[in-house]
Amino acid sequence: MPHTDTIADWLVSHRLYEDNLFYYALIICFWFFIGFVFLGFEINGYSQAQNLFFNFIYYLIICACMALCPFWFKLFFSKTHTAKREQELQQALDELNEYDRAEVEAELAHTGGLAMRPIQKWAIIFLGSYFLFEVFFISAWVKDLALVWEPRWASALIEWVRENTDFLSDKERVDRKLFSVYIKPSDTELYQLYTSEREFLASSFGGATALFQVFRSFCFPLILFAFATIIWRPLDWLGGLSVDPRNIHSVGSFIFSSVATVAMTLLFLSIILYFIFLEMSAVLLFDKQHWANGFSWNFAFIFAVLSIKFICGWFVFWKNVFFNR
């Protein structure tokens, strides 16, 4: 199937990859919802630390259910048109010799005619598991604005964050460290609880935020890679090819690609800042509702992937200009 140039065409397309992605995303969202609703439960008669352990076991069970996406797909969606197309395609590919099969698969992968590959399936499973971990941390590991359980390694990470955090309100002592914190009057909840950034970071809630920030920051490249693995091709089908610098054919398209690259790069930087400023992570830690309200920030990863695509496209464009004359 040829590439589409409009969103309308993309929405009504019937690429096997997109259909397959829809069902897998549906399964992941279902199990994520089950986890989101019940994580943070407490069983009477048990300590908070014991309830944390029970919640962790529940979290692992939900992750295992997410990892069984292929099983749920075969169990509930084996009669769908998508499943039948996948089976027919697999049978047709099995009849080809090794060389022809590789050539056909390469073309189908380019046009969306193949189902999701294992790495793409594991990428969407990882995203579901990671975001559910954030819910687990917020609802079960943090209670009453403090960590329920703080092992030595967690304390070491918290101290590391504290030592590598700039207090932006103290402009004379900004050392351009890895993390930053700046509590403004507009940050209503934090502003009412703490009189200064130093008081916040030294508090139990500041420690919980620091540990949460470590998890989020360390997982940032993994999240970005997972998003890229899933949506790299679909972005082309959505119309990204018309903006990609590799396809510049006129002065107008050059200007348009340049503006688009700058815009996407700025949005990419915004998502990076989201993983640097502690006060933004702190707001998410108040409860699951605050986390859900801030979840839309994660869609900026799409713009981050676009930015990377465009930057790669510029390398190809200038390479062709200077070396392929």
UniProtKB/TrEMBL annotation:
Question: Which segments cross the bilayer?
Answer: 21-41, 56-77, 122-142, 210-232, 253-277, 297-318
- Which parts form a coiled-coil structure per UniProt? 82-109
Task: Provide the alphabetized UniProt keywords.
Answer: Coiled coil, Membrane, Transmembrane, Transmembrane helix
Q: Which domain of life is it from?
A: Bacteria
Protein name in the entry: Uncharacterized protein
Per the UniProt record, the source organism is Moraxella lacunata
Q: What is the lineage of its organism?
A: Bacteria, Pseudomonadati, Pseudomonadota, Gammaproteobacteria, Moraxellales
